[in-house]
């Protein structure tokens, strides 16, 4: 009797196992498939991420190509280049892009120091010389649109210091720079006066300078002249490219050279 009832239990268990087995195996297979699906989605996600990275890189490359093309076209049209693209070690402090200048007004919409390519190359070679002695050029002004020259003339019609816009300034040709020198820490060297100081104290022939200011002014002038510039007699900071006559007066706006 005992054996018979055990046998029944076994039979019932066996029938139950046979009935439930497909359900059990189905669950296992579903779980396996779900895990596999997640793996595939993961792989797809990673591959999309890689594609996105490539597209971003491609987009950046095209953007930079577009910007280069824009500058190339502007140079072809005007001859002007951004000084930083010729020598990025030159310090920039365009005073007319701030209100820290003799007019007390911001006259440039943005700090975009531009020069004729030939003038910029000469400035670079002067800067290379200064760097050997531990100094660098700081630019206070470079190319100036003719419209701004007209404003200068309204504010200070003194031909000793401001060129008559009827003829145009050498700044309007992108062939003149206003500069000083800084040391390795970026401190300006002692010079006869501040920038745009309109008195005979800014003249190269002024006799009352300190020996230090006199020496620095002469050192600046000597290297600039040897690099192809003409020193100005009434503004120690102003230098004309000696080839300035070959460049036209321009009125292209500085903001045209701003890159996105
Ligand atoms: Zn000047």
Explain this structure:
The protein has 260 residues and is an alpha+beta fold. The protein folds into 2 domains: 1-78; 80-257, 2-Layer Sandwich (Muramoyl-pentapeptide Carboxypeptidase, domain 2), CATH 3.30.1380.10. It is 47% helix and 11% strand. The protein contains 5 helices and 7 strands. The chain has a 5-stranded mixed beta sheet with strand order 2-4-5-7-6, with helices on one face. Bound molecules: zinc ion. The site of zinc ion has 6 residues, from strand 5.
The SSE order reads HEHEEHEHEHEE
Low-confidence stretches: none
Mean pLDDT: 93
CATH class of the largest domain: Alpha Beta
- Briefly note the structural class of the backbone: alpha+beta
CATH topology of the largest domain: Muramoyl-pentapeptide Carboxypeptidase, domain 2
Rg value: 37 Å
Largest sheet: 5 strands, mixed
What's the total count of β strands? Answer: 7
Give me the CATH architecture of the largest domain, please: 2-Layer Sandwich
* Count of spatially separate domains: 2
Q: How many helical stretches?
A: 5
CA-CA gap between termini: 95 Å
Please give the share of residues in helix.
40-55%
Bound molecules: zinc ion
Beta-strand residue percentage? 5-15%
* Order of the strands making up the biggest sheet: 2-4-5-7-6
Shape: rod-shaped
Keywords:
Muramoyl-pentapeptide Carboxypeptidase, domain 2; alpha+beta; binds zinc ion; 260 residues; 5 helices; two-stranded antiparallel ribbon
């Amino acid at each position: 009797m005992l054996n018979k009832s055990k046998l029944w239990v076994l039979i019932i268990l066996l029938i139950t196992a046979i009935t439930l087995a497909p359900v059990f195996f189905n669950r296992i297979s579903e779980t396996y498939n779900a895990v596999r699906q997640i793996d595939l989605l993961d792989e797809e996600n990673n591959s999309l991420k890689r594609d996105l990275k490539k597209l971003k890189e491609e987009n950046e490359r095209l953007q930079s190509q577009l910007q280069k093309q824009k500058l190339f076209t502007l140079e072809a049209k005007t001859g002007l280049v951004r000084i930083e693209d010729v020598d990025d070690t030159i310090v920039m402090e365009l005073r007319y892009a701030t209100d820290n200048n003799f007019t007390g007004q911001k006259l440039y919409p943005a700090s975009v120091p531009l020069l004729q390519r030939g003038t910029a190359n000469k400035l670079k070679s002067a800067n290379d010389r200064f760097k050997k002695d531990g100094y660098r050029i700081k630019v206070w002004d470079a190319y100036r649109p003719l419209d701004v020259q007209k404003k200068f003339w309204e504010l200070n019609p003194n031909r000793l210091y401001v060129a008559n816009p009827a003829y145009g300034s050498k700044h309007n040709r992108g062939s003149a720079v206003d500069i000083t020198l800084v040391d390795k820490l970026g401190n300006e060297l002692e010079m006869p006066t501040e920038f745009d100081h309109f008195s005979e104290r800014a003249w190269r022939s002024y006799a009352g300078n300190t020996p230090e200011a006199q020496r620095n002014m002469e050192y600046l002038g000597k290297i600039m002249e040897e690099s192809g510039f003409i020193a100005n007699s009434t503004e120690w900071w102003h230098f004309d490219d000696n080839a300035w006559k070959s460049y036209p007066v321009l009125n292209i706006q500085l903001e045209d050279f701003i890159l996105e």
